[in-house]
Predict the 3D structure of the following.
Amino acid sequence: MANTHYPESYYAASANAVPPRPALQGDVETDVCVIGAGYTGLSSALFLLENGFKVTELEAAKVGFGASGRNGGQIVNSYSRDIDVIERSVGPKQAQLLGQMAFEGGRIIRERVARYNIQCDLKDGGVFAANTAKQMGHLESQKRLWERFGHTQLELMDQQRIREVVNCEHYVGGMLDMSGGHIHPLNLALGEAAAVESLGGMIYEQSPAVRIERGANPIVHTPQGRVRAKFIIVAGNAYLGNLVPELAAKSMPCGTQVITTEPLGEALAKSLLPQDYCVEDCNYLLDYYRLTGDKRLVFGGGVVYGARDPANIEAIIRPKMLKAFPQLKDVKIDYAWTGNFLLTLSRLPQVGRLGDNIYYSQGCSGHGVTYTHLAGKVLAEALRGQAERFDAFADLPHYPFPGGQLLRTPFAALGAWYYGLRDKLGF
């Protein structure tokens, strides 16, 4: 059954109006066939179109149907594992390149919003909130690390200072990143899709890729059509299924849960987050929250391994919200939803090429909003023959989950239980 509607969420309910897009019928020829119309696919398509390629994009459901249209809406720099971890794994030269790229995704988003006049409630400023002195120590070293790579829009905050930007009593301090920020994520995707079409790109919805015929001129098959291309970009992430078996073994879909309150009104909203920054805490299993354009609180957290949809999302997330903001105890929750992201064992994205002409990027591991926009640029560069930055990602080591697909969920859940315990005990 095709997904003709977005899952119920605040974002779907407040999405900008868009034209219906057709399903692919019959045969199409193109330079690049992009599979997936989330951020990775849309970013790739935009960069390619700006460089003169003919692009056809296939989407199984609707633009931004997956994580791109359901996430917490936060622009967070770097990767799910930071540059120092990468450096220990791959050495200084490759880490230098990846470090230079770690802050590019946010810049790309802002450039896209400005150039294509995308209405997505873009706000500047993101806070990393420390629950313990140890977490504060990590933020201090993170600031030194990021500044080493030229990232200077950072301010360490003591307990008194963080209280000025987050009205929550739990934090001992934090770090403010003014190049972070937040957006309405589905409206960003819809605006990027409109930009793709304004440059002559074609987007087909309700057109899942069911088979890739590999070869010198690969063909992507959908239920009612075919796309013959010179290159393919696989950008399905957690919604790819088993289309490319080589990619399925080294990644695992995970669900994250989000709730949105009723409108809080100007005064209450401003009392929670006076500067309208977004916030994430420093726990391994972290909570994250922000205000929307119409002054609701979006609050997310928790991970469900293997991407089952939990029965009662509000019961999981509301207690976390009330722990941070007990003053919201009488506030109604208007929306609750879940969305999948793709986790890798290393927590680093997987980028590469199959044969000569099938490129892919996947596995943002919860850091997707900025990374996917960078990935689109890096993939487009590789198709133009500039592969240095692509190779820096492609050379990262990746491993299959122990026990293959059968054991990857319990294995990861056990790890999450362990780290959750560490968060609780303050290790």
User: Anything to note?
Assistant: The longest strand covers residues 333-343. The chain has two domains: 1-122+183-250+346-400, 123-179+253-344. The chain has 14 helices and 17 strands.
